[in-house]
Amino acid sequence: MCGAINNVSDFPLLDPLLGLAGYSEAEIRSVLNKRECRPTDDVLALVPTKLGPRLMAATWWLKLDPDTLLPDTRWNTFNCRSSQILKSPLHQMAPRSYRAVVITDGFYEWQPRYAGGRLYSDLSAEEQQHLPRPQSKQRHWIHRPGELMLLGALCKHWLDAEGNPKVSVGVITLPPHPAFLDVHAKSFPLVLRPEELEDWMNPRLRHEQFGSLFVETEVRVDVEVQAINDQEFDLIPEEPLILRAPQV
Distance between CA atoms of 42 and 197, rounded to whole angstroms? Predict the structure, then answer.
């Protein structure tokens, strides 16, 4: 995760809610002007500030060049591996990383198809270690029908030469769920539940207090996976894959 994020521009009531929160029309459009967001684009994020959590556009690439505040592409930091959050010096170096949330109505993954139409799960253990050349790739849309997805993330706060604030984010990724291997065999994002937001957005709580989330191996919310046409975003008529969270 993630190949791309589906923006929330078409989600009901989002525009008026942002308007009520005091955002100008220009600010709203800067966040919602693209349907599909790729790494280095702006995404809609809930980030901690001195005045409390705030929705704003954030660069989807955690480490920026401190001089230009453009994505530092020497390292791929649009995702943050959960196993490294408590270890990596990236999250302690200035500016330090804080927990945030990327808000979306779904995300996209591309999974290779191999010779003979084989999927990842069809490969031998040796082939999975040394992947053969793919013949094609299938795009999938992963979403929660009728609901927003709250992707756990880390953010950094920056100041440009004029003292204007800028925020960057990286989505936290977990190991792939076994049922997800034929959709994306590398990782699955940390999806938060609404009741977890208050603690998650509390900057006074240390990352260590969320260690159980960083080693999660189950799907945390029900999601639907649908194959789509890569050009027109049209759904391919086949039965969607449903990943269900364990009953608590």
Answer: 22
Amino acid identity at 192: L
Mean pLDDT of 31-59: 84
pLDDT of residue 185: 83
The answer to whether the CB of 5 falls within 8 A of the CB of 43 is yes
CA dihedral sign of residues 119, 121, 122, 128: positive
Instruction: Read off the pTM.
Output: 0.87
Q: 235 or 94: which carries more pLDDT confidence?
A: 94
Q: Minimal CA–CA distance to 159: which of 167, 171, 169? A: 167
The string of DSSP letters for 145-201 reads: TTB-EEEEEEEEEEE-TTS-EEEEEEEEEEPPPGGGTTT-SS-EE-BPPGGGHHHHT
Residue 182 CB: number of other CB atoms within 10 A?
18
Q: How far apart are CA 119 and CA 183, in angstroms?
A: 9
Residue 1: the pLDDT is 54
Compute the distance between CA of residue 152 and CA of residue 120 in angstroms, rounded to an integer: 26
149 token code pair: 């997805």
Given a contact cutoff of 8 angstroms between Cβ atoms, the answer to whether 154 and 93 are in contact is no
pLDDT in tens, 66-117: 999 999 999 999 999 999 999 999 999 999 999 999 988 889 888 889 998 8
How far apart CA 209 and CA 231 sit, in angstroms, is 42
3-state SS of 100-152?
A: EEEEECCEEEEEEEEHHHECHHHCCHHHHHCCCCCCEEEEEEEEECCECEEEE
Residues ≥6 apart with Cβ < 8 Å to 110? 3, 137, 138, 139, 140, 184, 230
The radius of gyration of the chain's CA atoms, rounded to the nearest angstrom, is: 18
